[in-house]
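Internal QA ticket QA-208
Title: Verify multi-chain structure generation after dependency bump
Assignee: T.L.

Test input:
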Amino acid sequence: MLLEIQSLTKRYPGSDSARPVLSDVSLSLAAGDTLALTGESGSGKSTLLHLVGALDGFDSGEIRLDGHALSTLADRERAVLRRDVVALVFQQFNLIPSLSVAQNLSFHARLAGREDRGWIAQLTERLGLDGFGARYPEQLSGGQQQRVAIGRALAMRPRLLLADEPSGNLDETTSDTVMALMLDLVAQSGAALFLVTHSERIAALAGRRAHLSNGRIA
Amino acid sequence: MSVRLIALILCLLAGGAHAQGFAGLGTTAEGFAIPQRGTPLTFPQDHGAHPEYRIEWWYLTATLTGADGRDYGVQWTLFRSALAPHDGSGWETPQLWMGHAALTTPDAHYLDERLARGGIGQAGVTAQPFHAFIDNWQMQGQPGTGISDLTLRASGPGFAYDLTLTAEGPLVLHGDQGYSVKSAAGQASHYYSQPAYTVRGTLTLPEGAVAVTGQGWLDREWSSQPLAGDQTGWDWFSLSFDSGARMMGFGLRDGGPGYTSATWIGTDGSATALPDGALKLTPLETSAVAGRDVPTRWRVELPARGLDVTVSALNPQTWMATSFPYWEGPVDIAGSHDGRGYLEMTGY
Amino acid sequence: MTCVALAALLSHWRRQPLQFLTLVIGLALATGLWSAVQAINAEARASYAQAAAQLGRADHASLSAPSGWIARDAYVALRRAGWKLSPVLEGRTRLGDVAATVVGVDFLSYPMPPEADAGSPEITPERIFTAPGLLFAPPDLAERLADMPNLPPVVSTGELPPGIVMTDIALAERLLDRAGQIDRLLVLDNQPMNLRPLAELAPDLDLTPPERDTDTARLTDSFHLNLTAFGLLSFAVGLFIVHGTIGLAFQQRRAMFRTMRALGVSLRRLTWLLMAELGILALVSGALGLVLGYLVAAALLPDVAATLRGLYGAPVTGSLTLRPLWVASGLGIAVIGAAIAGAQGVWQLRAMPILAGAGQRAWARLSARRARVQALAGLALLAAGGGAVALFDGLVAGFALLAGLMLGTALILPALLDLVLALIQRGARAPVTQWIWADMRAQLPGLSLALMALLLALATNIGVGTMVSSFRLTFTGWLDQRLASELYVTARNDEQGAELHRWLEDRADAVLPIRGVDASIAGQTGEVFGMRVHETYRQNWPLIAAAPQVWERLEAGDGVLVNEQLARREALWPGAQVAIGADWHPDVIGVYSDYGNPVGQVVVGLDTLLARFDGVPYRQFGVRIAPERVPALIAAIRADFDLPASAVIDQAGIKARSLGVFEKTFVVTGALNVLTLGVAAFAILTSLLTLWGMRLPQLAPVWALGLTRARLARLELLRSVMLAGLTALAALPLGLLLAWVLLAVINVKAFGWRLPMYLFPGDWLILFALALLAGALAAALPARRLRRTPPADLLKVFANER
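Actual output:
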């Protein structure tokens, strides 16, 4: 298994401890799988995604990512996982404003030390970003920025792509185009996809689905 | 402070032991008078200064015993050094003066040094009446008596002395009527002594004053080039034996066999000069003094006079830490003859 | 990957060159300001110490003759009495066409002969002691003298102060045409035992203790204290600016840091990268700052040198040398400042989760908490400073108070401003004004560091300005007291004194004998002076405390005056009694200021003095005469009496010269003041520019609601000016407090006298205006940009909501 989540529980310090954000969540994902996680606002789905992305710690249970038990890893080792194994696409794009589009696209791959110029060129073309390479993020529209973010994530050939409401900031048409493209590219790259969305329509595009309600898998 | 400049000045005045021989005595003597064999010494004139010679000294040592039963030693020395062979008045004079005074006890050694320019009345020597002085240090004779009756005073940090000296015998002329050869190459000086003073007076030490009596020895020497260039230092002995006889002897060290000279002074004051090699000096034991090894026990042999004695320092640490440093202090004599004396060692 | 990450970090600066420039300039200015003050201080101190040491004043007491010179025979007599002394003959003369001070010494006894520079020809005793002799001179002087014909050979030595030529006393006698004369005798170390006291052997010679205890040293110290205080304050200002710029550099890139961490750059690596980036920045900017500081110091140093040379007679080179310590301390402040600021940034970075929300609100909450913590820390610092003075004595406690006061108040400032703005906001009714005040409060956290720097700069200005001006007024008064008479004449001996007195009586308006003796005062050696009460003293003598009818009582022998040092040390204020000698306990009826005098002094009526003490010298006189008649009188005295030039002094001329030189001090202080203020204004500009990026989203809604861009720009300007004005208001009491601490605490602890404080409201107004100007200038650029922002950019805020 690429990803195994077992009896995961997470509380936020200071919040109502009787009601954990996530309680007893178990999920698994094999290489190449696509999973869409749906749920209401505040159901804990973004939190789950962050935990899987080794961005935050949890209280009990375990997450195994590519054979590593996350609870046992130090910050540095988790950073290595983020760098080499998983890639993230955020709702807010999170591009680096001072880097050009081309630099942003190759940034994660270069951090991971596996920049594949051919693959990046292919991605650039498929994402419709040809001719935008010298521009800076602030000069792009929202949809363009999100395509750069997707390109950046896939450029490093992640084993697992984590996407958090990737189209949340986009209008419906743009959103559909971007999502279709992303699924297509994920399939082409062989990565597994863990997609968080509140949209049933988008969730329907994934191979498997799970629903989170009040911190529990329904 | 500029040690280098001071050293330069004193190199000329007296110091700087190495390349030019100890005390700069190996330098050539351009313009200065050169000691000549056969020049008769005349007194009292020759008690005074000889500004036409490069270097000159009045060197008094005394071995004393205090009312407290302890042994003491006293040194009073005035050096003259000329930058040019003439005198002058005011600051402009080329005559420079240096005084060393020391007081030695079995466990302590007090010393001080004074430097002065001639010509302004701060230091000098007159022959009639005899008066040698630098600052408040003085060696003063009575009118008409030459150097037979002297008063001797000096003071420094932590010590002072005030002594009266009375000569008990005649002046002794070393070498050939006062012409004393200092190397096989012929370097020489004019050299006479008054070796037989009885001394009484008062020493002042940090712990208080003490009355003393004993014996004193005055050396007078002047020259312009007394050392050969390769001679690096000397070991000089003035020994007074209980028998009433005395001996002055020195060995000059060089890379080779060295050069020795001695004068035997009989109980009647008659002097006999002994040639190079007659005196044998053998270091027996060294002491660590001021960061170097200095022989403080010697075997002194003068077979011609049946002398074979061991000479030991009263206080091995009598290092004269002056502008040019040397060892000078009272010694005890034991062996074929017993007695007391003074030892000076330079160039260590 | 390190390279990739570092390149990403640095790419920020490429995209934001202005921010980068402000960061570098901010750091460089702070370093420059600090190091300029340090350089001046270090150079002046080093020169002064060297000069004092070289001239034998620092380590050795010296004997001098009140009449002018000591005869060579008198020197020899003291030598023959056993005293180890070293003669010095000193005078101004022309060597070729160069004017120089020739110092003649006896190289056999002089304790610190200068060492020739490397490469000089060999120096033999023959060359020093026999004709033609040698001249030792500092390198630049040596170079000039070397070209002069008919001069002895010159040896260059870096160990002599500027303008001094040292040579053997024999040659000096000829050069100065003073055969047989000596100006002073240094008392050497290791004197023999059982000497007769100098006072017995040479009663006519004055013994001056080593210079570290003399007037000159004290006054010079006082001047240096000014500079030291300035150095410390500029350090604080610089630290705030460095802290501010670095802090902003972190804030601007917070989102980038989070993204990089999300993409797998570990916290540790990020921390190291940031530290490396900061270190390089600090070193580069620090080096720039050093150059800047060097230039400023080099420009100001000649004035400082002139001040010290003219006012205190302390020779100081007008040129600057690079001292390793100075370079180190300059780079030190840049690196330390960057490290402190960077540490805070990294700390926040660690404390924040990788994916906190966009963070404006969280950030605001954090800064509100920080402001509270800061204010508490400020209060603690104030208390600690006060406590230090209350609990401990001494200069260090005084400086602790100073540091606590400055830093504490600076830390409290943001909370204070927030409070004031909140109060105003509560009173505001119209929506736009309500928004303005609320918005100003929101801006405070970002501007607070710059405002703190402005506060410190303004307070420093007021404080140091007040101190220097007060010092100047006091100094003028002191000169008037000391130099009230037009002419001072010193006779060779009492007989000549009596003759001179009679002679002067016929020719001057008034002759005021200056007669005094050393005596035991309150158990310590001090001076007792007799005063013939005269209108001159009634008008000029600056009493800081006095009993009624003080002058009448003084003349009647009913009480004495004491100097301030004595009064403070022994608590001898009017009403107390002072013990003089063995059995005399007169009433204290007045206390006068006596700057620069380390020993206790008592002034009594002249008749009382003569009745109480035997053998009071009768040699010195102050002469009152119409100023225009002074030159003729000097000429007449010289014609009728055999007096050395130094025995007849035209004090009016000296006073004018002293004051003229003192004014130069203000040039220095003023220049430093302007610099500090400029640096603070720059800090505000930097902050406003940085805030600019965050401002747009806040301004866009207001713009959308109907305010024009021009009006928004005007409001921006107004806000900045208001904040600067409020800060200036807070700076005024702080600056006055600072001046008070400097004058009344630190000065008293350091020197034993208190300088009175004078207020200069005119200066405050100018400074207030300057602060407003600084605020306006700093906001001008952002405001201009706002006015020209295309509406599309404002619209983007809505389209691209963060």
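Spot checks passed. Chains A and B do not touch (no CB pair under 8 Å).
Status: verified.
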